[in-house]
Design brief:
217 residues; alpha/beta; Arc Repressor Mutant, subunit A; Rossmann fold; 7-stranded mixed beta sheet; two-stranded antiparallel sheet; 40% helix; 17% strand; disordered C terminus; binds nicotinamide-adenine-dinucleotide; DNA-binding; Rex_actinobacterial-type; repressor
């Protein structure tokens, strides 16, 4: 039986081990002193608390580049999400197999939702139709939406929307890159100012050939 200690877990997560033990106690998970936690049981307890031990049927609406890529992603099933249906408005798509599932026409959206007991919908349509797709999903009983379309969706109370925007993630990275570059430039400047200034020789010349590149502070 593989086990893990609270110290090991705390170090991996970068948190305090006493806090980690307290948090786990809320799950009803108490490790054995000197042994730690049974890994398999701990994973089950955390999954159960997060609602991941259930089978969640999910529909994806808009089976273009992104919808097909998501349908082909194998990582959902192992986390408790089953792609129950793929829906698209293009009649040419109807009946096509994507990731081993036949795409269904959006005319039947409401019936597909109710037949499969779907509460989670993924929207990967063009932004111009995302709101109307959202309205239909909600009217059919969907209460959670993962929206990839670059548009802000209006939903009634009781419906949760999560928006995924990879360009925002890139913008965050760009911001950090810019900050790193700024810090590096400041460090170089500080190093240049701190460096002892020797006699200017040919390698110290500035662009016009007679001004030292590094002036005394
Ligand atoms: N969030 C992100 O980071 C991210 C990244 C890439 C793309 N996107 C967005 O994802 C969406 C899809 O991008 P894509 O490249 O897959 O586009 P795509 O054109 O390849 O696919 C869109 C699909 O939606 C279908 N469709 C159109 N109207 C529909 C409707 N009313 N009901 C059902 N299906 C309908 C089309 O037939 C098509 O198959 C776009 O809104 C795009 O801007 C978001």
């Amino acid at each position: 039986m593989p086990t893990v200690s609270s110290e090991e877990l705390a170090a991996a997560a970068g948190v305090n081990s006493a806090k980690l033990r307290k948090d786990f106690s809320y799950l009803g998970s108490y490790g054995t002193r000197g042994v730690g936690y049974d890994v398999e049981y701990l994973v089950y307890q955390i999954s159960r608390e997060l609602g991941l031990t259930q089978d969640w049927p999910v529909v994806i609406v808009g089976i273009g580049n992104l919808g097909a890529a998501l349908a082909n992603y194998g990582g959902f099933a192992s986390r408790g999400f089953r792609v129950a249906a793929l829906i698209d408005a293009d009649p040419a798509m109807a009946g096509k197999q994507v990731a081993g599932i036949a795409v269904q026409h959006s005319d039947g959206l409401e019936k597909i939702i109710s037949d499969n007991g779907v509460s989670i919908g993924v929207i990967t349509t063009p932004p111009s139709v995302a709101q109307q797709v959202c309205d239909r999903l909600v009217a059919a009983g969907v209460t959670s939406i993962l929206n990839f379309a670059p548009t802000v969706l209006s939903v009634p109370d009781g419906v949760d929307v999560r928006k995924v925007d990879l360009s925002i993630e890139l913008q965050i990275l760009a911001f950090h890159e810019q900050r790193k570059a700024g810090e590096e430039a400041a460090l170089n400047e500080a190093a240049a100012l701190a460096a002892p200034v020797g006699r200017a020789d040919s390698t110290d010349q500035g662009p016009d050939g007679d001004v030292p590149a590094v002036m005394p502070a």
